[in-house]
Amino acid sequence: MSEEIENHKIVAHKLVQIKDEVFSFIRDNLGKITEYDVQRFILKRYEEELIIIDKDAPIVAINKNTSFIHYFPKKNSEIITKDSLILIDLWGGLKDKKSFFGDITWMAYSGKSIPKEIQEAFDRVICARDVSIEFIKKSLKNKILPKCSEVDKVARESLGESAKYFAHNLGHSIGFDNCHGKDFILGKSCDKKLELNIPFTIEPGIYFENKFGVRSEIDCYVDNNYELIIASSIQDKIILL
After folding, report:
1. Which end of the chain is more exposed for a tag (fewer CB within 10 A), N or C?
2. Do the beta carbons of residue 130 and residue 226 sit within 8 Å?
3. Are 103 and 217 within 8 A, CB to CB?
4. Which band of pLDDT confidence, cut at 50, 70 and 90, is reported for residue 8?
C-alpha cells in the first residue's frame, strides 16, 4: 500500500501546482476567457503531467455558478471578468501507475477586496474544516479511528445556522479509478470508521442557491502510526487575483 499512498501524494502535489497555474492563467486573461476555456487549460495540463480523470472533467465555476455543487461548464459558459468569485475543483490519478486519486477545491476572487458576505461564509467553512481535522487528531492520539458520522457531525455543529446550506457530505474516501472511493463516506448516516492508509477528503461547503457558494477541499489519510497526514495544501484565505 505504501507505493499507492506515495503516488497519491505525488498526484495531490501536481494538482496543487496546476491550481496555481490556473489562477495565474485567469489573472492574465480576465475578460477574455470563459469557465470552459479554463477547464480546457486544466485538461491540457493533465495531459502534459500524465494525469487521468474519471467520467467527469474538473469543475470551474464563477459567481452564481459556484452555488451549484456539481457545475460543469459548457462551451458557451460565463466569461471571467473582474470582481468574480471563482471555484475550481480538480481531481485525477497518475497514468500508468497504481495511484489513489487526488481531489482538491480552491477559491479565488478577481478583485481588490472580497465582499463581506463571501468572506464570512468562507471563514465559516474554513473553521468547520479545521475543527474536523482537530477532532480526528484528538481521536488518533488514543489510537482510535473515529466514525465518519462523528466527524461530519462536528463540522455541521461548527457551522451552526449555516449548516442548513451545507448540502453534501463532509468528505469521502478516494479510490484508484475514481475520486469517490467505495470504502466510506464522511456523512451523517455512515457509521464506518476511517481506515488506515485509505485517503479521504474533508470538504465542507456553504451554498446559497443562485447566489454563490464556497468550499474548501483537502486530501488526508491516517498512517500506520495513527497520524493524520494531509497530502495536499491547505487554503486559509481566498486568493486575490
Report:
1. N
2. no
3. yes
4. very high
Distance CA 84, CA 89 (A): 16
35 close to 65: Cβ distance less than 8 angstroms: yes
pLDDT band with cut points at 50, 70 and 90 for residue 178: confident
Dig out the grid coordinates for 42 from the structure. 486544466
Please provide residue 172's backbone torsions phi and psi, each rounded to the nearest 5 degrees. Answer: -160, 155
- Among 209, 3, 211, residue whose Cα is nearest residue 97: 3
DSSP output for 153-206 = HHHHHHHGGGGGG--S-SEEB--SSSSS-SS-EESTT--PBP-BT--EEE--EE
* Rounded Cα–Cα distance for residues 238 and 215 (Å): 10
Asked whether 148 and 187 are in contact (CB, 8 A), the reply is: yes
H or E element, residue 68: none
Q: State the average pLDDT for the chain.
A: 96
Give the DSSP H or E segment for 134: helix 116-141
Predicted TM-score (pTM) above 0.85? yes
Q: Kindly calculate the radius of gyration of the chain based on its CA atoms and give it in whole angstroms.
A: 17
